[in-house]
Amino acid sequence: MMQKFFSPAILTVFLFTSIETVAQNSNVKAPIELPANFQYPNGIARSSKGMLYVGSVTSGQILRINSQGKSETFFPGSSEIFAANSLRLDEQREILWGASSDFLGIKNSKGETVRRPHRIFAIDTRTGKVLRVIQMPDSGFGNDIALDDNGGVYLTDSSRPRIHYLAPGTSKLQVWAENPLFNSKQIGLAGIARRPDGVVIVGLFSTGELFKITPQPFGVAVEKISLTRKLENPDGMQFAPDGKLLVTEGSVTSGNGRLLSIDVLSPTNTPRSIETIAANMESPVNLTVAGNDVLVTESRIRHRLLPGQEKNVPSRFFIRRFNLRK
């Protein structure tokens, strides 16, 4: 997700180069139009039975959409959970994990914008009951989440060069990886994807770089992934069934949001090529994978980043759908 770290000039380009039509090709499926009272989709997760969870980055509201397309409010948002910029489903334990980051902030009595402490949360998918809310340590900015098979939670920090880990059954985030390569003057680490063997890929939102983190007997090894070009604001990511990394490219400056596929882990000494699956989306921020189907949240939130443009709310919001078969 994005914060207000871009200059007015850049954001003006970002707004007025908007392209609202997703690239037309044989892989594009009909989008899911979200209810009129739901705005700015971000976090997204899907169960093995086709139940879809979609969170709003501005309200904390979480929709639940069944396989027939019927939607309901699973969680309305609260004073503790005021955003859902990342969602990941631990289906075995029936827990929906999310990150709640204060993207826009709130006005205090003096009219000043203040931001509430960022936090992560866990909700019981059977009852909708909030199980845990854990604030980020050291005023960190929790952005995106990956889960392991044991129920552990990995979390990127966009303001500090860290990846946090929440061990199963605990309530305190620990630093899992910290490295100078993760430093950024603007938005730092965003998307994260984890393979079953423990290898983790993360992206730096502002600089467009990807990194591979490999667990070692004592600590982790971090290496930069060589690409044929820098990515334009990589955000949500997941591994596809073929082992390639799927990445949403938010494209703040150009406005041309994309869904990419990158073979990040096969042996090679050459820069990794980047395949564009879909283009011309407006601020794609996160995704979930179901077999060969990819569902992408198109947040359409750029107007909220420009003074005086806040009331230009899009009339519709969508989940974009693509099929990886060619």
UniProtKB/TrEMBL annotation:
Residues 1-23 form the signal peptide. The keyword Iron-sulfur does not apply. The keyword Signal applies. Gene3D superfamilies: TolB, C-terminal domain, YVTN repeat-like/Quinoprotein amine dehydrogenase. It comes from the Bacteria. Keywords: Signal. PANTHER family: MESOCENTIN, PTHR31460. This is Gluconolaconase.
